[in-house]
């Protein structure tokens, strides 16, 4: 695939600030989470969660509903910043730098992590406008370049053929499955290092789900993917690594094969076997 | 850096807007309160003006308070008799969101936008045609016309929220439409009360509708055919008097009117809060 | 089914249809009555000479409405220009930046202020704004102003419509799903970029509807403007000159000029003009809104 890059500063850190190097992590980890605690109005939701997200692979976070999967995912790109009463402590590091350290440019940080929500969240603009939204924020003004970026990313999610003749129609007219792929294209257009997916296929029919899963499997060659999933079957289909959460705690994490076929913890065995959750 | 600068500037502008608006509005309340409190006394509220309303130094504004209250009670009752069935009709008799319901809503939007002076002029023509003098009755009719679209819109706003599950459930028990509406009205009661209060607030403060239709007098009306003084006109007429005592009556009337609005507005708020529980 | 129940049902629903239709009729009746009453003046003068002339000498039989129409438009436009930017900015701050405690502190205040009667705003304008303009502001720009002016009218109206706008903007922004904001933030947008490009954009039809409502309110406002705008039938020249809007014309003269049938008829024509402009305005904005909603989807 032709590589059309636009110039931008990828540093997350403002001025010359550098956070302290974190505790040991696996080599090249895309994300490294250590001692993460999240509480809302004093009530803990996540308790001392630590794990690594290996690069260029799919990490699935599984667990029964209400176990804190979504909260965990949202704390990875600081989405809790604007929620009143939320308190986050601990370390999340990307490229060895703590994202919760003071002086972090949150907007630049979020640019490095694309977000795929439960339901497609198309912005109130055209198909083209949705994909071009991020690059425009980062100062891409030339129409030609914008068009190239839009085309490239729509092709990357296999949407180009379907929508190239209605690029300027409101994005809301696409089917739900197409909308979700559009959201993925929009996220890719800002060249993230990581994609975060929050039950990204739960609103889709099986066919559209399959399409998204195939896309993710293809994308993991270039970037790291963290997926909260509500179905074990999905995790079995696409996960390279699995993190099992239960009641706000990380019970077990490891390679998919190990967690599914030979879990260490009893709780994991019961969940994977289908007797809880 | 440029984007962070924009963010900073915009945030400053927003805070400036909030501060300016709040300061101006508080200043208005302060002026009304300080001028009004100085002239407000028990005698002011309970006695009638003597020696002519424009120049007479003695007495208070009991005529205007009584006139306004009588008129608003009558006008609200009259308007409710028309508005309630109309709002219910649009939602539950006509096909929901059908062409007829949509055009009715549009028409009430237009009626809502018609200036109060036009209602005043129209009310005056209506009175002449009916052979009624400028009187309590005339003012009541004009104010009822003014607040009718306000009430229809406000009741409609809560009526749209009634789920069709509810009406279907009542129908499935073999109820007629009329019987179903009785259930709906019970459900809507808080909404109807707050719509009524909203209309009261709007109707009691409007001067242009009663300018030609209600007349003005120093006494309290006894029959519907007597002219009636109202608070907004008491403010308007007496403020332009050269006599300080008369001007003070205007300030007192302004404070009383504002206090009434305050009570009504908090009443609506409390009701909305209560009905959400 | 028992007959009495059916009869009750039928009467009730028929009656309800009747009240709704009578409201329809009301609008037509208002239009027709005003038109009939303006007939006299329209038969004596051409519509063009009435709307195109700014000479208002009722005693000599000259009725030119241009100055009044221009005065109404000027005061309304000034009010919206002054009110919209701060109201929008303040609402964005309240919904996108302020925490819920501050929001719940502001909401009742805005509500209360939206309910304060025009005449009270008029009192405030006369007491503070008029002297401020005549003594402090006007001397910087013109030789003399009484303070009763276009500027005073515009500011009073702006202050009146700001709470109205903020109340509706607040509801509007609160109805926009959080997901949408997060989608934008997740792409690395700042909060202001998210507010401007996503929240305001999504809310655009509602914002337009709110502005339309504010314009109708300002356009037809009588007492508050009349108390501070000077009421002199000249074409609006400067911010410090007095103006004479249509509603004030009706309010000041109606009922006292019944001896001159032409005069009464002319005032009815003024009411008809207001009525027609409001309807036209509603129809046009309805059409615009419809298209806007489709485009944004």
Describe this structure in words.
The complex is a heterotrimer of chains A (277), B (277) and C (297). Chain A contains ten helices and ten strands. Chain A has 277 residues and is of the alpha/beta class. In chain A, helix 3 crosses helix 4 and helix 4 crosses helix 6. Chain A starts with 30 loop residues before the first strand and ends with a helix. Chain B is globular and about 70 Å long. Chain B is mostly helical. Chain B folds into two domains: 38 residues; 231 residues, MetI-like (MetI-like fold, Orthogonal Bundle). Chain C is an all-alpha fold. In chain C, helix 1 crosses helix 12, helix 6 packs antiparallel against helix 9 and helix 9 runs antiparallel to helix 12. Chains B and C meet through helix 1, helix 3, helix 4, helix 5 and helix 6 of B and helix 1, helix 3, helix 4, helix 5 and helix 6 of C.
Key attributes of the depicted protein:
heterotrimer; B: about 280 residues; mainly alpha; MetI-like fold; 2 domains; C: mainly alpha; 12 helices; 2 strands
Q: What oligomeric assembly is this protein in? A: heterotrimer
Name of the CATH architecture of the largest domain in chain B: Orthogonal Bundle
Q: Major sheet of chain A: order of its strands?
A: 6-7-8-3-9-10
C-alpha geometry of chain B = globular
CATH class of the domain at 55-78 and 105-273 in chain A: Alpha Beta
CATH superfamily label of the largest domain in chain B:
MetI-like
CATH level-four homologous superfamily name of the domain at 55-78 and 105-273 in chain A: P-loop containing nucleotide triphosphate hydrolases
| Level-1 CATH class name of the largest domain in chain B | Mainly Alpha
Question: What is the topological layout?
Answer:
The complex is a heterotrimer of chains A (277), B (277) and C (297).
Chain A: E1 31-40, E2 43-53, E3 58-62, H1 69-76, E4 86-94, E5 97-98, H2 106-111, E6 113-116, H3 127-137, H4 143-156, H5 160-163, H6 176-188, E7 194-198, H7 206-219, E8 224-228, H8 232-238, E9 241-246, E10 249-255, H9 256-261, H10 266-273
Parallel strand pairs in A: 3-8, 3-9, 6-7, 7-8
Antiparallel strand pairs in A: 1-2, 1-4, 4-5, 9-10
Chain B: H1 2-39, H2 42-46, H3 62-93, H4 99-113, H5 116-130, H6 136-159, H7 164-172, H8 177-205, H9 231-239, H10 244-276
Chain C: H1 3-44, H2 47-52, E1 56-57, E2 62-63, H3 66-97, H4 100-115, H5 118-137, H6 150-174, H7 178-186, H8 191-202, H9 204-220, H10 223-228, H11 246-253, H12 261-296
Antiparallel strand pairs in C: 1-2
Helix pairs in contact in C: 1-12, 3-6, 3-9, 4-6, 5-6, 6-9, 7-8, 9-12, 11-12
């Amino acid at each position: 695939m032709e590589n059309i890059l636009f110039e931008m500063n990828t540093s997350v850190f403002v001025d010359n600030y550098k956070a302290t190097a974190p505790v040991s992590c696996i080599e090249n980890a895309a994300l490294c989470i250590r001692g993460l605690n999240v509480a809302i109005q004093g009530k803990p939701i996540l308790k001392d969660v630590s794990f690594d997200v290996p690069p260029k692979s799919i990490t699935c976070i599984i667990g029964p509903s209400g176990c804190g999967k979504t909260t965990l995912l949202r704390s990875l790109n600081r989405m809790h910043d604007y929620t009143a009463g939320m308190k986050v402590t601990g370390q999340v590091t990307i490229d060895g730098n703590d994202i919760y350290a003071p002086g972090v440019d949150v907007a630049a940080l979020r640019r490095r992590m694309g977000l795929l929500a439960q339901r497609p969240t198309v912005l109130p603009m055209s198909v083209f406008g949705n994909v071009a939204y991020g690059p425009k924020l980062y100062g891409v003004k030339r129409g030609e370049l914008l068009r190239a970026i839009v085309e490239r990313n729509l092709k990357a999610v296999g949407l180009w053929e379907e929508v190239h003749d209605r690029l300027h129609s409101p994005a809301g007219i696409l089917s739900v499955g197409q909308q979700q792929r559009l959201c993925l294209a929009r996220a890719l257009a800002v060249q993230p290092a990581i994609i975060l997916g929050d039950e990204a296929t739960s609103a889709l029919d099986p066919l559209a789900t399959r399409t998204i899963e195939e896309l993710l499997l293809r994308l993991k060659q270039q970037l790291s993917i963290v997926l909260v999933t509500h179905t074990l079957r999905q995790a079995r289909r696409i996960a390279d690594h699995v993190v099992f959460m239960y009641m706000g705690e990380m019970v077990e994490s490891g390679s998919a094969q190990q967690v599914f076929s030979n879990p260490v913890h009893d709780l994991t065995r019961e969940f994977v076997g289908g007797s809880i959750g | 850096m440029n984007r962070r600068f924009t963010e900073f500037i915009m945030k400053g502008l927003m805070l400036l807007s909030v501060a300016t608006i709040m300061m101006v509005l508080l200043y208005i309340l302060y002026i009304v309160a300080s001028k009004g409190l100085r002239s407000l006394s028990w005698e002011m509220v309970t006695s009638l003006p003597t020696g002519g309303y424009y120049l007479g130094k003695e007495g208070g504004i009991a005529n205007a308070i009584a006139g306004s209250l009588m008129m608003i009670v009558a006008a609200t009752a009259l308007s409710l008799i028309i508005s309630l069935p109309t709002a219910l009709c649009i939602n539950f008799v006509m096909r929901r969101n059908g062409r007829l319901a949509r055009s009715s809503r549009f028409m009430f939007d237009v009626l809502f936008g018609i200036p109060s002076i036009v209602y005043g002029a129209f009310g005056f023509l209506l009175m002449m045609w009916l052979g009624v003098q400028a009187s309590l009755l005339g003012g009541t009719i004009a104010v009822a016309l003014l607040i009718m679209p306000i009430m229809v819109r406000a009741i409609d706003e809560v009526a749209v929220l009634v789920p069709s599950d509810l009406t279907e459930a009542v129908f499935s028990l073999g109820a007629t439409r009329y019987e179903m509406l009785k259930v709906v009205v019970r459900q809507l009661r808080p909404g109807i009360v707050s719509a009524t209060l909203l209309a009261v607030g709007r109707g009691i403060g409007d001067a242009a509708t009663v300018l030609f239709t209600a007349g003005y007098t120093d006494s309290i009306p006894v029959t519907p055919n007597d002219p009636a003084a109202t608070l907004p006109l008491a403010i308007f007429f007496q403020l332009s008097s050269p006599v300080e005592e008369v001007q003070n009556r205007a300030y007192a009337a302004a404070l009383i009117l504002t206090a009434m609005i305050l009570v009504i507005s908090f009443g609506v708020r409390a009701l909305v809060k209560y009905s959400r529980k | 089914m028992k007959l009495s129940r059916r009869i009750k049902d039928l009467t009730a629903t028929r009656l309800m249809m009747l009240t709704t239709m009578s409201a329809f009729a009301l609008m037509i009746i208002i239009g027709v009555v005003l038109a009939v009453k303006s007939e006299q003046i329209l038969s004596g003068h051409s519509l063009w000479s009435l709307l195109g002339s700014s000479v208002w000498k009722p005693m000599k039989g000259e009725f030119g409405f241009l100055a009044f129409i221009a005065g109404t438009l000027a005061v309304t436009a000034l009010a919206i220009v002054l009110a919209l930017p701060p109201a929008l900015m303040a609402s964005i701050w309240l919904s996108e930046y302020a925490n819920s405690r501050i929001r719940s502190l502001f909401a009742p205040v805005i509500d209360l202020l939206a309910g304060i009667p025009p005449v009270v705003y008029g009192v405030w304008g006369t007491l503070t704004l008029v002297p401020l303009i005549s003594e402090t502001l006007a001397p910087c720009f013109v030789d003399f102003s009484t303070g009763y002016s276009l500027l005073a009218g515009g500011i009073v109206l702006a202050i009146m419509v700001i709470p109205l706008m903020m109340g509706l903007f607040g509801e509007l922004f609160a109805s926009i799903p959080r997901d949408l904001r997060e989608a934008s933030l997740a792409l690395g947008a700042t909060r202001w970029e998210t507010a401007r490009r996503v929240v305001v954009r999504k809310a655009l039809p509602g914002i337009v509807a709110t502005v339309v409502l504010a314009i109708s309110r300002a356009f037809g406002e009588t007492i508050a403007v009349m108390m501070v705008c000077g009421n002199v039938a000249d074409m609006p020249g400067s911010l410090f000159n007095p103006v004479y809007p249509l509603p004030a014309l009706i309010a000041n003269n109606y009922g006292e000029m019944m001896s001159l049938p032409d005069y009464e008829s002319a005032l009815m024509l003024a009411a008809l003009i207001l009525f027609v402009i409001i309807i036209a305005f509603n129809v046009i904005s309805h059409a615009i809104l419809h298209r806007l909603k489709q485009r944004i989807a």
